[in-house]
Amino acid sequence: MSPSIGPMAPLVLSAYTLVTANGRGTGAVLDAILARRSALKPCDFEDVALKTHIGRVAGLEDFSLDHDLRPFDCRNNRLAWLGLQQDGFTVAVAEAKQRYGAHRIAVIMGTSTSGILETEHAYRARDPRTGALPASYVSRYRYTHNMFSLGHFVRTCLGLEGPAMVVSTACSSSAKVFATAARLMRAGFCDAAVVGGVDSLCHTTLYGFSALQLLSSDPCRPCDEDRDGLSLGEAAGYALLERVERAGGRGAVALLGYGESTDGYHMSHPHPEGAGAIRAIRDSLARAGIRPEAVEYVNLHGTATRANDEVEDKAVYSVFGARPACSSTKGWTGHTLGAAGVTEAVISALCLTKGLIPGTLNCRRVDPALQCRVVRDHQFGALSCVVSNIFGFGGNNCSLVLGKL
Amino acid sequence: MDVAIDGIGLLAPGLSGWRESRAVLAGDRPYQPTAVPSPEATILPQNERRRSSDSVRWAVQVAQEAIEQSGLNPRDVPTVFASSGGEMSVFDQLCRALATEERLISPTLFHQSVHNTAAGYWGIATTGQQSSTALSCYDDSFAAGLVEAVATVREEQRPVLLVTYDLAVPAPLDEARPITEGFAAAFVLSPPARDSTVILRLRLEQAPAGESPCFPEYLAERLADDALERLRQNNPAARSLPLLCAVAAAVPRTVALAWLENQRLQLTIEPRRC
Question: What domains sit in chain B, N to C, each tagged with a CATH number?
Answer without folding.
Answer: 2-271 (3.40.47.10)
